[in-house]
Automatic annotation (TrEMBL):
EC id: 2.5.1.16
Organism per entry: Streptomyces coffeae
Listed name of the protein: Polyamine aminopropyltransferase
UniProt keyword list: Cell membrane, Membrane, Polyamine biosynthesis, Spermidine biosynthesis, Transferase, Transmembrane, Transmembrane helix
Transmembrane segments: 32-60, 66-85, 92-116, 128-150, 162-185, 191-211, 223-242
Entry coiled-coil feature ranges: none
Length: 536
């Protein structure tokens, strides 16, 4: 894709322009074909850029940081590429053909290489920076070469040529930007989509040079480009054929050999390992992050559900997230519950919780209970509805993930407060306290800023929680916040169902453990000024 770092038009004397090249078509059609190639290459360039951002965000979790790294490095590299390509202007046709072949190979294989770096090396940032540099430099090198080629077809003033190039480039970028989420990802997925894009890039670049500008090439250069492009297309085709095997091997490197279910939904990647008679504890991963561990999920859900249910009436319960059905399992143990509404954005997780033998056994087949209603919606949007609940359970993604930040904002808690019935309670899982106290206490400060009274408590994990390479170290605890419009007691019900792993004394100790690490004076997090991830 062609962007801002184009060479400035110099006032210095320039060498005599080369005479127009003899083309196999009329000059007008030749000019159109050059601009069509610009259009295709721009679309491919933007797809490479979006592919790097999307995959890095999935692997690392922070889309703002990953997008900033990719965009800034690529734009810088484009400027370098433009400068370096000036040396190739005397042989613009062969230079452009070589640049496009290398760009097709590097861009097409970038997603696979990035995923391999994450799976087998445990990190992806060095690979992300390296590919952003190389792809950006190659895209930047297109600018002076295409300018020379279009002038070789038909001489025109520099301003008109630049305007034509930019028009074709920006339209191509639009098409590439729309094709990536609406065509390539649904039809091919991330890895195959990048490989297919590389093949299109190679065909477009080689066709322009080997056919339209073939009289500019020596016999040796022509054969070199043919062999190079055939090799690139062969490598990309082999990558497409090997993608399923590669994904299985990479998934085993990340999750171990016990993967039972692996699917890419329209929302996220869902992986289920263990359970189902495999002899290993069940584990559910969403976008590479552990959401359910059969080793200690009971301890987590006891702490999430029972203090909130015991603190007052609980006839109507709203569960935000928790599509695995485990929070609902604990809610349904209370005889006074008349209805439970589960708001989950990914219906595939709910289907898995209903149909998978291991996960449905773990959640005690909670979705078969007639009191349970499942809604596929965004939790933020659902809270805008005029409803009333005695208990609201927020079991949502970590606040430090960009996709989850809005669920820990002042605006979100303002909406949550509005749906609480008189005496209603909100309970929030706010992340680990021991490694990241700043994040936890920022959530608490944000809830208070929305007019809620809060009671913090932290439960230690029974054993280290399994995590995949490249993610944060396993948390030693889970931090929770119980909140209401008025002060609320932190207790367990003396006559209600007994938690599996939590005692009144353990709950008091959990409150003391949180207070010992309290941080004061933290600002609230808002949609326009998220505060998470700083100071940890």
């Amino acid at each position: 894709m062609i962007e801002a770092p184009t060479p400035a038009v110099s006032d210095a004397p320039s060498p005599e322009p080369e005479p127009p090249v003899r083309l196999p078509v009329r000059a007008g059609l030749g000019r159109f074909l050059v601009l069509l190639t610009v259009f295709v290459c721009a679309a491919c360039g933007l797809v490479y850029e979006l592919e790097l951002v999307a995959l890095a965000s999935y692997l690392a979790g922070d889309s703002v940081t990953q997008a900033s790294v990719v965009l800034s490095v690529m734009v810088f590299a484009m400027g370098l590429g433009s400068l370096l390509a000036k040396r190739l202007r005397c042989r613009a046709a062969v230079g452009f053909g070589a640049v496009e072949a290398v760009l097709a190979l590097v861009g097409g294989c970038s997603a696979m290489a990035l995923y391999a770096s994450f799976a087998w090396c445990g990190h992806s940032r060095p690979a992300l920076v390296a590919f952003s540099l190389v792809i950006g430099a190659l895209i930047g090198a297109e600018v002076p070469l295409l300018m020379t080629l279009i002038q070789r077809v038909r001489r025109q003033d520099a301003g008109g040529a630049v305007a034509d190039l930019f028009a074709a480039d920006y339209v191509g970028a639009l098409v590439g930007g729309l094709a990536f989420p609406f065509l390539l990802l649904p039809a091919f997925g991330q890895l195959t989509g990048a490989l297919v894009t590389g093949a299109v890039n190679a065909v477009a670049g080689s066709a322009l040079v080997l056919w339209l500008f073939r009289r500019d090439l020596s016999g040796r250069a022509r054969w070199a480009l043919i062999v190079t492009n055939v090799t690139v297309l062969t490598v990309l085709a082999a990558g497409v054929a090997l993608t399923p095997s590669f994904e299985r091997a990479a998934r085993q490197a990340v999750y171990g050999p016990g993967v039972r279910v692996a699917l890419r939904t329209g929302v996220q990647e869902v992986v289920l390992t263990g359970g189902g008679g495999s002899g290993r504890p069940l584990a559910l991963f969403l976008d590479g992050r552990l959401r359910v561990s059969g080793r200690d999920e009971v301890r987590y859900h006891d702490a999430l559900i029972h203090p909130a249910m015991a603190a007052g009436p609980h006839a109507r319960v709203l569960v935000l997230g928790g599509g695995d059905g485990l929070a609902t399992r604990e809610v349904l143990r209370y005889a006074g519950v008349r209805s439970v509404t589960v708001v989950e954005r990914d219906p595939a997780v709910v289907r898995l919780a209903r149909r998978d033998p291991g996960l449905s056994a773990l959640n005690a087949r909670s979705y078969r209970d007639p009191r349970v209603r499942v809604v596929t919606a965004d939790a933020f949007d659902w809270l805008r509805r005029r409803a009333s609940y005695d208990v609201v359970v927020s079991d949502l993604p970590d606040p430090r993930l960009t996709s989850g930040t809005k669920f820990y904002s002042q605006e979100f808690y303002g909406l949550a407060q509005r749906v609480l019935a008189p005496g209603g309670r909100l309970v929030v899982h706010a992340g680990a306290v021991h490694p990241r106290p700043h994040t936890y206490w920022t959530v608490e400060a944000t809830m208070r800023s929305a007019g809620l009274w809060t009671v913090p408590y932290v439960i230690g994990a029974r054993r280290p929680v399994f995590s995949v390479p490249g993610t944060d170290r396993a948390p030693r605890d889970w931090g929770f916040l119980l909140a209401s419009r008025a002060p609320v007691p932190l207790r367990l019900s003396p006559r209600g169902p007994r938690p599996h792993s939590l005692t009144p004394g353990g709950l008091r100790a959990a409150a003391h453990a949180a207070e010992r690490r309290r941080e004061l004076g933290l600002p609230a997090s808002t949609l326009m000024h998220p505060r998470y991830g700083y100071g940890d």
